[in-house]
UniProtKB/TrEMBL annotation:
The keyword Transferase applies. Residues 5-133 form the Glycosyltransferase 2-like domain. InterPro entries: Galactosyl_T_C, Glyco_trans_2-like, Nucleotide-diphossugar_trans. It comes from Agromyces ramosus. Keywords: Transferase. This is Glycosyltransferase 2-like domain-containing protein. The lineage of its organism: Bacteria, Bacillati, Actinomycetota, Actinomycetes, Micrococcales. Residues 174-217 form the Galactosyltransferase C-terminal domain. GO terms for molecular function: transferase activity. PANTHER family: RHAMNOSYLTRANSFERASE WBBL. Pfam families: Glyco_transf_7C, Glycos_transf_2.
């Protein structure tokens, strides 16, 4: 049984995923691991390239775009390691990071889920490796634009976790799926990722569900990756629609109906204000205007948004 199973979900990111796999193999010489790539129906020759370039990789062909949650679960079912690591295809693992993550986990069994520190390609800190939990207060701050005006303020932008640079060990509510380590037995006990989600939001739900099950989540700053954010999805307004669909899904599935309805209205209001500002300032790039224009496509959340945003009939339909 290997110590670690690394699961990467690939969708038309052949070169980036190959670089990710290479970085894992080059920087984890002391880790007994297996590499599992789930290919979501790519058309760029990904699977032949992975099998030729990485003979030891387990390449699973899903045959279609299953989305992130279903892809992760498919990879996890094929895993045999003690630990399961979810890793984005648009990441590069820095030397010593996987060993540091595993050693910390072994030394601190009081925690059940582990994340790390992510950097952007220019070397600056990417805070999206972890987040605070959404609340009516944080959504009100989004709706009034105070979370943007006072970005990374613990009071006005609480989901950002303040100005903390992810450079110290800290317990957090949400660890994102770009770098998430969990015992495989715990992943299975939790039932894996919620497959109602298609893309974005499933990792937040999974982390908070783990918390309700008594699992503490922690960031390990010595585990560092470089993350090209959004490598498998289009940037700008289209990605914003996907993110909003994930947020709405989380509210509708985990909050009471009345609280969720208020939360969704706050999200819509925040998008509308940002779109209006883009119109007034005549910005050449106006992603929020796209999100506002397509609000009917995402405001019901998944699985409905799987059809409206991706043109795919949900598997549960």
């Amino acid at each position: 049984m290997p110590e670690l199973s690394v699961v990467v979900v690939n969708y038309n990111t052949r070169d980036a995923t190959a670089a990710c796999l290479r970085s894992v193999l080059q920087t984890a010489a002391t880790v007994d691991l297996e590499l599992i790539v789930v290919d979501n129906g790519s058309s760029d020759g990904s699977v032949p390239a992975f099998r030729a370039g990485f003979p030891g990789v387990v390449a699973i062909e899903a045959g279609e775009n299953l989305g992130f949650a279903r892809g992760v679960n498919l990879g996890a079912r094929a895993a045999s390691g003690t630990w399961l690591l979810l890793l984005n295809p648009d990441t590069i693992v820095l030397p010593g990071s996987l060993r540091a993550l595993l050693d910390f986990a072994a030394a601190h069994p009081e925690f059940g889920m582990f994340g790390g520190r992510t950097l952007r390609p220019d070397g600056s800190v990417d805070p999206s490796s972890c987040w605070g939990a959404p609340s009516l207060w944080s959504l009100t701050m989004f709706a009034t634009m105070l979370s943007t005006t006072f970005k990374r303020s613990p009071f006005f932008d609480p989901e950002s976790l303040g100005a903390w640079n992810r450079d110290s060990v800290r317990e957090v509510p949400i660890i994102t799926g770009c770098l998430l380590l969990v015992r495989r037995a715990d992943f299975e006990r939790l039932g894996g990722m919620d497959e109602d989600y298609f893309l974005y939001g499933e990792d937040a739900e999974f982390s908070l569900r783990a918390g309700r099950a008594g699992m503490r989540r922690v960031v390990v700053p010595d585990a560092v990756i470089v993350h090209e954010v959004g490598g498998s999805s289009d940037a700008g307004g289209e990605k914003g629609c996907m993110v909003m669909a994930g947020k709405v899904t989380h509210l509708r599935k985990t909050w009471t109906p009345v609280r969720a309805a208020i939360g969704v209205r706050l999200l819509v209001a925040g998008v509308g204000i940002r779109a209006a500002l883009e119109t007034v300032t005549r910005r050449s790039r106006a992603p929020w205007s796209t999100v506002w224009r397509r609000r009917a496509d995402w405001r019901r959340g998944y699985p409905a948004a799987e059809a409206t945003l991706f043109g795919r009939v949900p598997a549960t339909a």
